[in-house]
């Protein structure tokens, strides 16, 4: 039980550290490893990205940085209001992220969900950017609500 608590604490600390560094510049990237022990098929990360009022849209993609494993992929879903969209990195470990997706929901809170398609550990990087109508970065904050 202590080891499980320690592993969860380390995972959360790593995620929060990665998210803290992501906010330092215009490149907003956050990464971690889902389900390091590889036995939780339903593992899901859930975060809120808050974009400033001068934002037109949030764009995002996900990259699975793990070694390829058959039938094990990383997905990203984005939700704002009544709009939702998703993307999947189709090839693990190739250095190429998923197709970029966006929702033109203006400023406010967007929900991001990251999950995997089955049991097994998956390392990933999510890139997310709040953008103005003129394609300029706007203020971006992120809060991780769940990583389990």
Description:
By secondary structure, this protein is mainly β. The chain has a single domain (2-147), classed as Jelly Rolls (Sandwich). The protein is built from 1 helix and 9 strands; from the N terminus they run H-E-E-E-E-E-E-E-E-E. It has a 5-stranded antiparallel sheet with strand order 5-4-7-2-9, covered by helices on one side. A 4-stranded antiparallel sheet has the order 1-8-3-6. Strand 4 and strand 5 (83-89) form a beta hairpin.
SSE diagram, text form:
Elements: H1 2-22, E1 29-34, E2 44-51, E3 57-64, E4 74-80, E5 83-89, E6 101-103, E7 108-116, E8 122-131, E9 140-147
Antiparallel strand pairs: 1-8, 2-7, 2-9, 3-6, 3-8, 4-5, 4-7
Signal peptide: 1-27
Keywords: Signal
Reading side by side through the largest sheet, how are the strands ordered?
5-4-7-2-9
What's the CATH class, please?
Mainly Beta
Tally of individual helices:
1
**Beta-strand content bin:** 35-45%
Class from secondary-structure proportions:
mainly beta
Could you state the order of secondary-structure elements as H and E?
A: HEEEEEEEEE
Q: What is the architecture at the second tier of CATH?
A: Sandwich
Separation of the first and last Cα atoms: 16 Å
Shape: elongated
**Rg calc:** 15 Å
- Report the helical percentage: 10-25%
CATH topology tier name: Jelly Rolls
Number of strands: 9
Mean of residue pLDDT values: 84
Number of self-contained structural domains: 1
What does the largest sheet look like?
A: 5 strands, antiparallel
Low-confidence stretches: 1-26
């Amino acid at each position: 039980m202590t080891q499980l608590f320690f592993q969860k604490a380390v995972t959360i600390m790593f995620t929060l550290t990665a998210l803290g560094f992501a906010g330092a510049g215009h490149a907003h990237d956050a990464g971690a490893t889902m389900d390091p022990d590889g036995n939780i098929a339903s593992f899901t990360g859930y975060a809120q990205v808050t974009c400033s009022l001068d934002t037109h849209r949030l764009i995002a993609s996900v990259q699975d940085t793990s070694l390829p494993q058959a039938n094990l992929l990383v997905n990203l879903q984005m939700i704002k209001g009544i709009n939702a969209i998703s993307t999947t990195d189709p090839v693990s470990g190739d250095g190429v992220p998923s197709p970029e997706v966006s929702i033109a929901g203006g400023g406010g809170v967007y929900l991001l969900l990251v999950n995997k398609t089955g049991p097994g550990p998956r390392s990933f990087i999510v890139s997310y950017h709040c953008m103005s109508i003129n394609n300029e970065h706007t203020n971006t904050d992120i809060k991780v609500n769940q990583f389990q």
